[in-house]
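Raw record, unedited: Glutathione S-transferase
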Amino acid sequence: MKIYGDKQSGNSYKLILVTSFLQIHYEWQDIDTKKGETRTDSFLQLNPNGKIPILIWNDGRVLSESNAILNFLAEGSDLIPKDAFERARVLQWQFFEQYSHEPYIAVARYIKHYLGIPEERRTEYESKQEGGHKALKVLETELEKAPFLVGNSLTTADISLFAYTHVAHEGGFDLSMYPKIQDWIRRIQSLERFKPMHSV
C-alpha cells in the first residue's frame, strides 16, 4: 500500500505513528503542499478534496481523511477498543480533534512555525490562541482521570490528539501550563516502536 503525505503535517504523522506501532509496511510518497502538489490533476483524481494524507490500499482503492485512515489501519488491533461504548469514545475524541483542536493548534503552528507570523496573518494567529488553550484545557482535565484518553492503554484517540499537541509549542502554546499533557506526551514517546515526527 502507499501513503501520500507531508512529513511536517500532523495529520500525516498520525499514519507514520500507527504504522510504526503496528509494524505495518507501506510505501511513502512525499507530497509538498507548499508547491501545490495536492492541486495537480493527478492528485485530484485520487482525492478531489485536494488534501493529504491519502492511502492507496493494496487493491487500488483510495481512502482520505487522516482519522478514517488511522482507524482503518488499526482495525482489529488493541488500538481500537472492543467495547462499543469505548469505540464511540475514541470517535468522540477524534471528532473533537478535527473540530475543536486542529483548527486552532495546527493552524497557529503553521502561521508561526512555517510562515513566521506575517503581518497580514497576525490577527488570525492571535485569534487561534484562545481556542487552542480551550482545547488543551479539555485534554488536561481528561488526562487527570486516566493515563490515556480512553482508559489505561493507547488507542487511536491518543494518536490523533498527540500528533499536533506534542508540537503545540511551535504554534506559541506553552505546554508547561499543562503538566498532565506533558506526562501523556512522555508516556507515548516512551512506548515501544514510537517514531518521532519527520521520520519516514
